[in-house]
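Subject — a protein and its fold
Fields — amino acid sequence, C-alpha cells
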Amino acid sequence: MKKLIFQKFLTDTFKFFIIICFSFSLIVWIIQAVNYLDFVSEDGHGLYTYFSYTLYNFPKIIHRILPFSFFIALFFTISQYEANNELILYWSNGIKKITFINIIILYSLIILLFQIFLGSYVSPTSQDKARSFLRDSNIDFFPSLIKPGKFIDTVTNLTIFIESKDDKSIYKNIFLHDKLKDGKSSQIIYAKEAVLVNVGKNRYFQLFDGKLLNFKNKKISNIEFKNIKFDLSKYETITITYPKIQEANIKDLFSCLYYHYKGEVGSFYAEFLRCEVNTIKAIQEEFLKRLFKPLYIPLIALISCLMIIKSKEDKKYDYFRFWMFILVFFIIVISEISIKYSGHGHSGILAYALFPILLFSTIYISLITKFNNKI
C-alpha cells in the first residue's frame, strides 16, 4: 500500500515536471530561434544550417531550465495533494513525514545525476555539433544579402558595395574592398558590371571593365581589366564558428584546472579549449556549473518538502507556502548569480560548492530534531 502511494505521488510529480520542463524550454527555444534568424538574414547561412543549429541548442536550454522546472513541479504537486487532502492518506497509513522527505530527496538525487549527465556530456556535445553546422556552412544565402546601395560585410575581410542591379541579375558599378590575410595589404576592385556565379560550393564574381588597386608596403599599383574572376568561396562568415568553453568536454576542463592548480597551466593543450591564464576563471565557472550547480537540486527538494510541516487548516498556511516559494526562488537565483564570482580563487570555488551542502545539512538535521521531539 505504501509503495503504491509513493508511486502515485512520484508519477504525478514526474509527469508535471516533464510538461513544465518542455513547455518552458520550448518557449525559450522559440525566442532564441527568432534571435538566430540573423544567421540567415545577415550572415548568409542557409535554412538547413539555421534549423540544425537551433535544434541542437535545445539540450542546453533544458539543462538551464531543469532545476526551476523541478521546483515548480514538486511545489505544485505537494500543494495540490494538501489541497485535496491526499497527504492525510500518507500519515493515516503510518508513513512518517521524515520518511516522505527522504523519498523525495532520493528522487531529487536521480534528477541531480541526470542534470550532471546532461550538463557534462549531452549539452556540450550538442552545442559543438550545432557549431559544426556553422563551420561547414558555405553561406548559402549570400546572393540574397547583396542589396544595391548597401555596404555588405557579411564575410570576414571583405566589404562589398553595389550601386544597382538590373532585371537580368547584372550588378552595376560594384566596389570590392579586400583585406588580405597578411593584414598589411589590401586591394580595391571597381567594375562597371558583375555577375554572381554559383557552381556547386564554389562562388565567385565575374567582373567586367574595371580597375584593380593593390595597396602593399605603402605602394599602390593600378591594373585595368576587361574580365576577371573574384573568388568568394575562400571567405568565411563573420559568425563565430570556433568552439566555446561551453562546448568543451568535461575531461578537458578538469585537466586544465588540474594543471592550473599545479602551476603548470601551459603544460596542457586541448584541441578545442584554450587553457590559458586569462581563461581559467571562465573554465572554473563552467566546471562548477556542470558538476556542482546540480547540488542545489536536493536543497530545492528539501525546502519544498517543508510545506508538509503545516496543514492547510493552519491560518498561516498560505503565508508559509508563499515564503517557501520565495525562499526556493531566491536560492535558484543565488545559484545562478554566485557562480559568476566562484572563479575568484580557491575560496570562491569552495564557498560555491559547500553552500548548498551546509544549508541542506542544517535544514535536514533541524527537521530530524523537530520530528523526534514530537515522538
User: Anything to note?
Assistant: Residues 2-136+242-374 form one domain. The chain has twelve helices and five strands. The chain has two domains: 2-136+242-374, 142-231. Residues 40-44, 238-242 have pLDDT under 50 and may be disordered.
